[in-house]
Amino acid sequence: MTRLAARGAANLSLLVIALAFVGPFLWVVIASVQPEATLAATPTLAFSLDNFTAVLTWETIILPMINSVVISGSTAILTVLVAGLAAYPLSRYQLRYRRHFMLTLLFTTGLPVTAILVPVYAMFFRFNLYGSVPAMVLFLTASSLPFSIWMMKNFMDGVPISLEEAAWVDGAGWVQSLRSVVGPLMAPGISVVAIFVFVGQWGNFFAPFVLLDTPDKQPAAVTIYTFFSQYGQVAYGQLAAFSILYTAPAVILYVAVNKYLAGSFNFAGSVKG
Amino acid sequence: MTVATAPSPSVTGSPAGGPSRRRRVLRWLLPLGPALVLLAIFLAGPILWSVYIAFTNETLTGSASVNSQFVGVANFVKLFGDPNFINSFLLTFIFVIGSAVIGQNTLGLIIALLMRGRGRVTRSVVNGVVIAAWVMPEVVAAACWFSFLAEDGTLNTVLGVSQEWLYTAPMLAVILANVWRGTAFSMLVYSAALSEVPADLVEAAAVDGASPARRLLHITLPLIRRSIMANLMLITLQTLASFGLIYALTGGGPGTASQTTPLYMYEQAFRYFEIGYGSAIALVMLVIGALFSLVYLRLIKTEDA
Predict the structure, then answer these.
(1) How far is A110 from chain B (nearest CA, A)?
(2) What domains appear along chain A, each with residue ranges and CATH number?
(3) Which residues in chain A touch residue B38, judged by CB atoms under 8 angstroms apart?
(4) Per-residue pLDDT reduced to its tens digit, B36-50
(5) Spatial distance between the Cα atoms of A15 and A24, rounded to a whole number of angstroms
(6) Which pLDDT tens digit goes with each residue over B93-114?
(7) Which residues have C-beta within 8 Å of that of residue B232, sequence separation ≥ 6?
(8) How many domains is chain B partitioned into structurally?
(9) Would residue B46 count as lying in a domain?
């Protein structure tokens, strides 16, 4: 009997927690399909997609989303390439300072990127890189590298070295071995890293906010903030529609790699050096 | 990409001596090269640069922008006597303790504990809503909480009160929003840790008559203590530097009532273009982050040995 009561109590608590987590979403989802939605949570029976059509213009959402795809996409691709290359000697060779290097990378993942942006901004200003999207992508890549190299190395450790030996016998060098043996075998790992970086940059607000100069270069993260601060009060329905369109890619991509990511949460307790 | 065109090591095989040694170095330097260059220019470089400019009076406007001067520790003397900085530091402390150490950590642990042995539907629904809040970009999270806390928003309607939360209790508002947004991380860490606690150990204690509370306190929690410590370090690091959520939700206001250190740094460096002073603030944040990061490394190292 007490067991049944305990289970009931647990289920009830989970229900309360789930409802509390749904709360803040609720009005955003409802308001997006309410034609006259304001901040006041007073749902009506009216349903329309007007809010979505209103924000689906070139300047409001289409260009910023394209910018987001370009910035996050090129950062993800570049990170995967550079981290994949770097992971190879770290995974395959006996290097004297490997352990130190890996621990330094892990240490770097803890440093606040927010704080690093002040000198980066000063540097960009001095070298005339302020407002340059490629320069920002290089910075974002560098800031994603420490964690990505870690993940890549761990995935690569999972590919048995014996599979490469056959390629070596055939005279393949490390470039070929990496491209035609190791790469394909760790494809799931590569996509986890790529999506992880992509989703992270998709939501990144601070870096483009301070490093890019004109609105036409800004990704959706900054445009939605501008929209929020200008029209958040008066056109909440449109802000809600914008929010949903902007969030959707991140959610879809997360769901796609969810299965693989689940295992990587052990890292908090036990990381192999 | 010079790397793709590099000759493969097997082609340049030669007996001992110079070339072989060079080959050995190239073997790891070529693939690591691009990463090392990027990390040096865009991460190590700026950090060292910030150490330098924190000791100058560099600004982006006015005369100091053309020729900035070395001013010694003046920025730091100003910093530790600056009531706005001290205010921001205290608020950051409250924010980290309230939203990460107490909020996310405890709630994440509670959810992970409650989820053990629940049905698949319950698990995926709770997981789904908690993780959705986490995957969402921070500005969208702010938009959610902006309407949730509005004068006639969802919360006031449910509670039957009329409060301007963002004005009357801005710190509480940003803390709650950050608990909501970040709990998923702790929940995932603790779910992973709890799944490795041997069930028979807990059951044996139950047979011996230990109450659920005693089992939790004396068996489960000690077994996952390293995950708890590591999680606390990681979420502290993430929360310390949190900018977008607070900035979009309250802008640090009203006044400076929710202006945590990253927001104060932003104001000094990017609004007033006081780059030297802003770098000094950034450097303080980096040092604090480095200290927590070192503690985290230690935790992992002991786990390794």
Answers:
(1) 5
(2) 66-265 (1.10.3720.10)
(3) 82, 138, 141-142, 145
(4) 999 999 999 999 988
(5) 15
(6) 999 999 999 999 999 999 999 9
(7) B100, B101, B105
(8) 1
(9) no
